[in-house]
Amino acid sequence: AGVEQASGAHSGYGQGVAGYARRFGAALGDGTSSRFFSTYAFPSLLHQDPRYFRKGEGSGRSRVGYSMSRGFVTRSDSGKTQPNWSNLAGKFTGAGLSNLYYPPEDRGASLTLSRVAISLSYQMLGNLAIEFWPEIHRKIGGGKKKENPQTPKTE
Predict the structure, then answer these.
(1) pLDDT of 23 higher than 70
(2) Which residues pair with 51 in a beta bridge?
(3) Would you call 42 helix, strand, or coil by DSSP?
(4) DSSP state, 1?
(5) What is the strand order of the sheet 81-83 is part of?
(6) d(Cα 101, Cα 33) in Å, to the nearest integer?
(7) pLDDT of residue 18
(8) Which of 8-12, 15-19, 35-39, 130-134 shows the lowest mean pLDDT across its residues?
(9) Which of 5, 36, 37, 80 is most buried, with most CB under 10 Å away?
């Protein structure tokens, strides 16, 4: 909301505290509705699992490809791989709903598609972070497991 305020995005909201509050509310609405439809409503209806499961092994290239594909491919409740219709439908529904509260000049099909693309891009980045975080953490932490000082040592 602050970046949008500074750049003058969504000029229909105006400036000042009221404009910032409208931008903040719109951003909150975007994220909340997209997550609700993508991780609850459509997965329940379509019997798909919305969670990301790490691959955790294989080449870096195969793991990157796997993590990026999860926005488009998922597991069904039975464990079979299938197109991730619930994620895509959720993102489109959330982006479509945003046309109700964005200023008139910031509505329309092309802007809805751009919101979906941005949401999918953020999801891919999040999946990459989840996939490679254990390796990043080991590199940063030096690969040593820290002892919990409250755990008594056994002899």
Answers:
(1) yes
(2) none
(3) helix
(4) -
(5) 48-49, 73-76, 81-83
(6) 12
(7) 84
(8) 8-12
(9) 37
Check: CB of residue 2 under 8 Å from CB of residue 20: yes
State in Å, rounded, how far the first CA of the chain is from the last one.
Answer: 56
Amino acid (one-letter) located at 60? G
The DSSP secondary structure of 56-96, one letter per residue, reads -SS-HHHHHHHHHHTTTEEEETTS-EEE-HHHHHHHHHHHH
Encoding tokens for residue 79?
Answer: 């464990």
Q: Between 73 and 26, where is the model more confident?
A: 73
| 3-state SS class at 47 | coil
User: What are the residue ranges of helices labelled H in the chain?
Assistant: 2-7, 16-36, 42-46, 60-69, 85-97, 109-141
87 burial via Cβ count (<10 Å: 0-12, 13-18, 19+):
buried
